[in-house]
Automatic annotation (TrEMBL):
Catalyzes the synthesis of alpha-ribazole-5'-phosphate from nicotinate mononucleotide (NAMN) and 5,6-dimethylbenzimidazole (DMB). Gene3D superfamilies: 1.10.1610.10, 3.40.50.10210. The active site is at E304 (proton acceptor). It is an enzyme of class 2 (transferase). Keywords: Cobalamin biosynthesis, Glycosyltransferase, Transferase. Belongs to the CobT family. SUPFAM superfamilies: Nicotinate mononucleotide:5,6-dimethylbenzimidazole phosphoribosyltransferase (CobT). This is Nicotinate-nucleotide--dimethylbenzimidazole phosphoribosyltransferase. GO terms for biological process: cobalamin biosynthetic process. It comes from the Bacteria. NCBIfam families: cobT_DBIPRT, PRK00105.1.
Length: 336
């Protein structure tokens, strides 16, 4: 059960999160210097392995139990025609996830990961944020707690993702409110709106900003402009931190949810890496603001944890090399 019952309680949890295990990290850095390869020849795989080792508190770990969680929710703002698809697609895709027919089902299997799907009150969309806050405090805390409780205690790597028609509008509004800039800087085509749709979406984001920008910290902004699946992703990312489970972020919406934590408590995302760079236009700008370099760039703009799921294989491979390779001494290979 979640260790908080209101937003202040969640803020207190964020303020007391564990930090990286410096000894395990140093041990991994030292081991990396001895592995049978020229220095830095495994590029970013080396950084990823050392980061993972530090968070696990083990200088030579491997990955056995990756978990992927997809949270789904509906958005009041979808009634303003901000998506290329109708809101009922959220629930229809949840059924598709449950029947194994979506992209994420195939990608989770390919990555050897356990997939959990949580639908969050689909018959109760959030409020349209151009009219008032998207969620009450009770609603946002319930969604944060749903995310918190969804993380498996035995997971050793977590990917969070989402499904929610209209949620790129929420994510754009959150990014603008937290990071700064205009609605147009952050608003993209999502599922594929045309030029008129994009102009309408920019207007909706701008109206949301006018009402909610500067009204509070990251989690208060999440309450005002976010949605249940965004809050649940934030809750799961925080829970993973409390359990020292490293996290791979997915695309534009997932990163906006994560940003709500970072803009509440700097360093809240130190246990997270960016799985990929989405084709949603402002994702790169958001990752830059969070100082995160994406692992993959495959032109994905699907969501549902797909890019994060693909990155699991890269992180696993990094740890297989780091923990499985022989040292120069063990293999009798001469140094430089
Ligand atoms: O992850 C991304 O970067 C991403 C980019 C564009 C769209 N999506 C997905 O598309 C849906 C939101 O798009 P929209 O147009 O309804 O706002 C939602 O279900 C997301 O998972 C996801
Ligand atoms: C079909 C469809 C599948 C999705 N998966 C994640 N977001 C989505 C949006 C749509 C429209």
């Amino acid at each position: 059960m979640a260790e908080f019952s209101d937003l202040d309680g969640f803020r207190a949890v964020l303020a007391e999160m564990p930090t990286i295990d410096a000894a395990a990290h140093a041990g991994a850095v030292e081991r990396n210097t001895q592995l049978t390869k020229p220095p830095a020849a495994l590029g970013r795989l080396e950084d990823v392995a050392q980061w993972y080792a530090g968070w696990r508190g083990d200088a030579r770990p491997k990955i056995h139990a990756p978990q992927i969680i997809v949270f789904a929710a509906n958005h009041g703002v979808a009634a303003q025609g901000v998506s290329a698809f109708p809101p009922e697609v959220t629930e229809q895709m949840v059924l598709n996830f449950q029947h194994g027919g979506a992209a994420i089902n195939q990608l989770a299997r390919a990555a050897g990961a356990h997939l959990d799907v949580h639908a969050l009150e689909l018959d109760r969309p959030t409020m349209d944020f151009t009219q008032g806050p998207a969620m009450s405090e009770v609603d946002v805390v319930a969604a944060l707690a749903a995310g918190w409780d969804a993380v498996r205690l035995d997971a050793d790597l977590l990917v969070v993702g989402e499904m929610g028609i209209g949620n790129t509008t929420s994510a754009a509004a959150l990014a603008a409110a937290l990071i700064g800039g205009d609605a147009a800087d952050w608003t993209g085509r999502g599922t594929g709106v045309d030029n008129a749709g994009l102009a309408n979406k920019i207007r909706v984001v701008a109206e949301g900003l006018a009402l909610h920008q500067g009204q509070g910290d990251g989690v208060e902004t999440l309450r005002r402009l976010g949605g249940r699946e965004l809050a649940a992703m934030a809750g799961a990312i925080a829970r993973a931190r409390s359990l020292r489970i490293p996290v791979i972020l997915d695309g534009f919406i997932c990163t906006a949810a994560a940003a709500c934590l970072e803009y509440t408590m700097k360093t809240a995302l130190d246990h997270c890496i960016a799985g990929h760079l989405s084709a949603e236009v402002a994702h790169g700008r958001m990752l830059q603001a969070l100082d995160k370099e994406p692992l993959l760039e495959l032109g994905l703009r699907l969501g549902e944890a797909s890019g994060g799921a693909l990155a699991i294989s890269i992180v696993k491979a990094a740890l297989e090399c780091h923990s499985g390779m022989a040292t120069f001494a063990e293999a009798g290979v001469s140094g430089a």
